[in-house]
Structure formats: structure tokens, C-alpha cells
Amino acid sequence: MAAAGHDVQLPHVAIFPFMARGHTVPMTHLACLLRRRGLATVTFFSTPGNAPFVRGQLDDDVAVVELPFPDHVVARGAAECVEALDSLFPLPAFVEAVSALRPGLEVSLAAARPRVGLLVADAFLHWAHASAAALGVPTVAFLGGNMFATIMRDVILRDNPAAALLSGGGGAEAATFAVPEFPHVHLTLADIPVPFNRPSPEGPIMELNAKLWKAIAGSNGLIVNTFDAMEGRYVEHWNRDHRAGPRAWPIGPLCLAHGGTGTGTGAVEPSWMKWLDEKAAAGRAVLYVALGTAMAIPDAQLREVAGGLEAAAAAGVYFLWAVRPSDADLGAGFEERVEGRGMVVREWVDQWRILQHGCVRGFLSHCGWNSAVEGVAAGVPLAAWPMGAEQPLNAMLVVDELRVGVRVPVPTAMATGGHGVVGSEVIARVARELMMMAGEGKGGGGGEEARNVAALASKAREAVAEGGSSWKALEEMVATLCRPVEGDTPKPTK
Ligand SMILES: O=c1ccn([C@@H]2O[C@H](COP(=O)(O)OP(=O)(O)O[C@H]3O[C@H](CO)[C@@H](O)[C@H](O)[C@H]3O)[C@@H](O)[C@H]2O)c(=O)[nH]1
After folding, report:
1. What is the pLDDT tens value at each position of the chain, 494 positions in all?
2. Which domains occur in the chain, in start order?
3. Distance 292 CA to ligand 1 centre (A)
4. CA 274 / ligand 1 centre spacing (Å)
């Protein structure tokens, strides 16, 4: 492996994302940021199957090294990214299957010239941290989530609020548990990710969780895609009082690495961009709808979303919906009926670019952490509709603490992992209320959440600008953790 052939005096940072879009996208932003700021030479690892996507996200001066799966794994037809799985239940097995890349990573790291001074590896690739450590390469872990949810996860493991809540008998679903260190935070069973919301959580997800945290604890740092004005108190708490992992480095929002221009802007404008331009020219405000890349949403729920958006459109709301999966059945004639008011896109879009479009004023989101950060960084208030994982905690941060969004009311049984759907009338109401609250522009007009998100977006830009908190954190992280290039003697390898 040879890094892009210039800047040999710079430290060499290698980046290895987990094969899920929500993990890969921010890592590609980090790679571009390190290059654009001249902080490092960067090599980005990818499987061949994910490489075209990765190359489309990266600047040309980031070297991409492909690590193919060994033949026996290919023969088993292994998926190459989380989005290819039917649901998140096989996630632990997928994570283990990906460890077949380990020998390839080790060969590549050992042969790298200049030597790799720092490996930024996703915590899901827990074995990559051990491989790098064995080669004397420091590592920094990337988890994809925020500091708030990370701390809450620790509190939940330590204090087992589920046991306390369920021992109370009736009404446990709605009862709250105050977090000792942060008394303003009240958790309910619905806020606690499955299976942590069970009194004795166990099974493959818990085993995976233990492996991830062992890797993080053994690494030299933890990158968090956040910034001081958003989560400063939680980062401070982690770095001062927590012993569950190494120092956290808040270096976000990483989407701002592209300086507000978006990624992958090709010569031909995509249809959704033209549509947004038309709406802007007509003075319309648009609601952007995207409910995540990793979780399968049942067709019945997607049809309720369609019904809700259709009703909202009839009441004057314009919307752009990036639908997953691409072949989702939204009900006969839906797209024709909303034509002109609503656009449905079934391909990969440049979400960051969409959110920055002047006419996009509201975001109905599952509150995956990247989406939440991107919404904030673009100054777009959110309607938070968590679907699983740590998303309920993200929604708490966005709605209750930062007050930059409103909540989609979800039946408690559904929020705690049970069945049920959010009805179209609820979606229509939230969509209308969000767009009314969003007001006329991104400049800070409209309701409280719209004003708050405009103010926070401006602090996000300050954080990544020269001398800002995230700007300094990234520089300090590289200087502190990265082995310098000079005097670099490679260790002998087998
Ligand atoms: O058509 C699309 C769809 C998505 N994106 C981008 O893909 C990323 C998606 O990330 P995120 O919003 O976090 O959603 P998920 O991929 O669904 O999130 C998974 O990963 C997150 C980060 O770990 C967790 O917070 C979530 O709970 C988990 O489901 C974002 O950068 C989006 O901008 C696009 O650019 N175009």
C-alpha cells in the first residue's frame, strides 16, 4: 500500500469504516477534512463492493485500498454492507463475517509506506484495533453515535433502569428513571435501546456490544461527530469522569468538511436537485423526508407515511422523500396523486446537499446521528421519529435538550420494540406543524425550534472554522495520537 504520492512528510492516517452507510459517510468526510487541512496523507480502506460508493464520496487525493473478502467468504455470498441485510438482526453475524478482512488489513498495514501513524477504525471492526496495536500503530475508534447516547449507554449498563422500571409493575412503560449524573435526563423504557431495555439483557447484540467496547477501551482515542455547542457538557463529563473509554475528540460536524458544497456533485444535476430549484424559484418551502438506511421499515408503515404526506400535501406542504428500500410499495397511484407537490426518490441522494438547499426548511428524520447532525448543521429543524438503536436517545437530545426539533408521537409499545404503526393522520399533523414552525427562511425566523436550529447551525460553522473548537480538536488529536513519520522503523512482520 502506498499513500497518495505527495506530502510524504505528513503523518499517514489510515481510515477503515464499518460497511454501513451511516458509518462510512462521516469517515469519508473525515478523510477529506484531513487532506484539505493538510494534516495528513490519507489511505481509506474499502471492500471492492463498497469501493465505487466510497470513491464517489472522496476527494481524488485520498488513496483507496481495496481489501477483498477471501474466496471462501465470497463463495458463501456474504453481503458487503449492512444495507444489503434483510434486517438488523443478523448484524452480529455480519460483523463477525467482516473479520475475514483481518489478514488483508494486517498485510496492508505492515507494508504501508510511509508507515501508518494512526489508524482510525470503526469500533465495529473491533479486531482491526488489535491488529494495529500488534503492529505498533495507534488507533482511534469511531462509533458513529453521539456523546449523550454513549454516556447513557454506560449509565444504563451500570444502573439497569429497566429492572427498576419493570419492578414497579403497572405503568412501567411510561415511568421514568432520572440519571444520577444528569438529573434533568429522565429515561423511559422507550428511550432505552433494545435489548438494553430488558432487565437482564443478553444475546448476540450484548456480546457484540462487549467486543466493541473492549476495542474502544483499548484504543487511544474516540472520535465523536459532534461539537462543543451541541454536546460540550457531555464530552467534558466523559473526559473528566468516565473510565469506560479513552479521551473523546469532538471534531464535527464532519459534513461541514465539504465547506457547504455537498459531496459528489456531478456534471448532470439529479432530478431531485432540479425539483428543489423549481420549488425555490416558486418561493415554496419543502419538507425533506428520510427514515434511515439501516433499518427495514414495514411496507404497512411506509404506506401510512405516504398517506400522511399526501394529506399534508393537500394542505399545502411540499415534500421530497428519499425512500428506502428502493422498491418500497407506497400504495397504488400515490406518486401520481402527489405529483407537483411531492417528489419520491428511490435512488441514493446527496442528503447533505439537499438539506443545504435554501427551500428545504424541515426534516422528518429517524434521527440516525448523521442525519441529526446534518439537519442541525444545515439549520433545518427536525421532526424526530426514532426507529430503533440509539435513535430515541438522539431524539431526546435534539428535541428536549437542544430544542431544535419536535417529536413524532409513537405508541409506547412500538417504541419499546413491539409492533404497531404510526398512523397517517399523525404524520400529516406533524408534517404541517413542522413546516408552519419552520417559517419563511433558514435565517432564524419561525418558531422556537427554527430559531434555535439557526443559532446552532451558526455555532457549528464556527466550530469547524479556523480556530474553532472542532478545528482545534482535530489538529490536537492528530498531533497527540499520530506517530510522526521521521525515525519510523517498521516492525518485522511474519
Ligand atoms: O440517500 C441517502 C441516504 C443517506 N445518506 C447519508 O447516509 C447517512 C446515513 O446516516 P444516518 O442518518 O446516521 O442513518 P443510518 O445509516 O440509518 O444510521 C445508522 O448509523 C447511525 C450512526 O452510527 C446511528 O445513529 C443509527 O442509529 C443507525 O441506524 C447520512 O450521512 C446521510 O446524509 C445520503 O447521503 N443519501
Report:
1. 555 545 458 999 999 999 999 999 999 999 999 999 999 999 999 999 999 999 999 999 999 999 998 877 665 656 677 776 665 557 888 898 899 999 999 999 999 999 999 999 999 999 999 999 999 999 999 989 999 999 999 999 999 989 888 886 667 777 899 999 999 999 999 899 889 988 898 999 999 999 999 999 999 999 999 999 999 999 999 999 876 789 999 999 999 997 644 444 456 899 999 999 999 999 999 999 999 987 788 899 999 999 999 999 999 999 999 999 888 999 999 999 999 999 999 999 999 999 999 999 999 999 999 999 999 999 999 999 999 899 999 999 999 999 999 999 987 766 666 667 999 999 999 999 999 999 877 766 789 999 999 999 999 999 999 999 999 999 999 999 999 776 555 444 33
2. 10-146+198-256+467-480 (3.40.50.2000), 269-458 (3.40.50.2000)
3. 5
4. 23
Residue of the nearest CA to atom 19 in ligand 1? 22
Q: Alpha-carbon torsion 445, 356, 312, 301, what sign?
A: negative
Tell me, what amino acid is at 463? A
The residue type of 363 is F
The owner of cell 477501551 is 217
| Strand ranges of the sheet holding 12-16, from the earlier edge strand across to the other edge | 63-66, 41-46, 12-16, 118-122, 139-142, 222-224, 248-250
> Whose C-alpha lies nearest to ligand 1, atom 23?
144
What amino acid is encoded at 310 in this protein? Answer: E
ipTM above 0.90, yes or no: yes
Does ligand 1 have an atom closer than 6 angstroms to the CB of 342? Answer: no
Regarding the beta carbon of 148 and ligand 1, being less than 6 Å apart is answered: no
Compute φ and ψ for 122, nearest 5 degrees.
Answer: -60, 145
pTM of the model: 0.94
What is the residue type of 376?
A: V
23 CA to middle of ligand 1, Å? 7
Distance between CA 273 and CA 346 in Å, rounded? Answer: 14
Task: Report how far ligand 1's centroid is from the alpha carbon of 416 (Å).
Answer: 21
Assess contact for 13 and 117: CB atoms under 8 A. yes
**How many Å apart are CA 255 and CA 370, to the nearest integer?**
8
71 Cβ neighbours under 8 A, 6+ residues apart: none
> In angstroms, what is the span from residue 85 Cα to ligand 1's centroid?
15
Q: Is the CB of 17 under 6 A from ligand 1?
A: no
In which element (H, E) is residue 318 found? strand 318-322
Give the burial class of 121: count Cβ atoms within 10 A of its Cβ; 0-12 exposed, 13-18 middle, 19 or more buried. Answer: buried
Which residue in 470, 466, 404, 477 sits closest to 252, CA to CA? 470
